[in-house]
Amino acid sequence: MSVTKKNLKDAIINRRSIRKVKKNENITKERINEVLKTAIHAPSSFNMQSGRIVVVMNDEHEKFWDIVKETLRSRVPEENFGTTVERLQGFRDGVGTILFFENQETIEQIQDKAPSYKEQFPYWSHQGSAMLQYAIWMSLSAEGIGASIQHYNPIIDEEVKKTWDIPGKWSLVAQMPFGEPNEQPGEKTLLPFEDVVKFY
């Protein structure tokens, strides 16, 4: 499918945080796979391609959010835990979660190849991850699939790596639960264009 100027514009404008998602049998592994095949063309500094993706779906997805809940149980005050569980359930009710990692081994290798930029590569790797996350998020949104970006790392990292046998050099950056939208997004406000963009 070709991307026209109009549908790219719509995808950018209509992408929103959908924090309550639900199951839908039409959101299949094959469909998500096609979204990811396109989105991994997102750029990265020096083309280092340090981003790594793990997709957990169905029972594995629910297991992931159970790990988050149990990790938070000892960290959130008891009087606030009910609200936390309710929020997490909005993610758990979905179809799956995309876990974004950065491969530190790749970053170290490129640091060796370009030592004059050594200090910058960790920052640039996160910029690359952000572009990858955004490309996937826009692609899901264009497909009518609800998603949001969550950050329960680093407190869940150890358990996640153990549960899914994630390589030790992969660093968890973000989590994107997805599914059929189960809420209307709230109103989105933007700063005045003139405050953000300057022409000279």
Tally of contiguous helical segments: 8
- Cα-based radius of gyration, to the nearest Å: 18 Å
Strand content: 15-25%
Biggest sheet statistics: 5 strands, antiparallel
Secondary structure tally: strands: 5
Helical residues, percent: 40-55%
List low-pLDDT spans: none
The helix/strand series, from N terminus to C terminus, equals HEHEHHEHHEHEH
Task: State the oligomer.
Answer: single chain
Structural class: alpha+beta
Separation, N- and C-terminal Cα atoms:
38 Å
What is the mean predicted local confidence, pLDDT? Answer: 95
The gross shape turns out to be: globular
Summarize the structure.
The protein has 200 residues and is α+β, with helices and mostly antiparallel strands. It has helices at 5-14, 29-39, 59-73, 78-92, 104-113, 121-142, 157-164, 193-196; strands at 21-22, 51-57, 96-103, 146-147, 170-181.
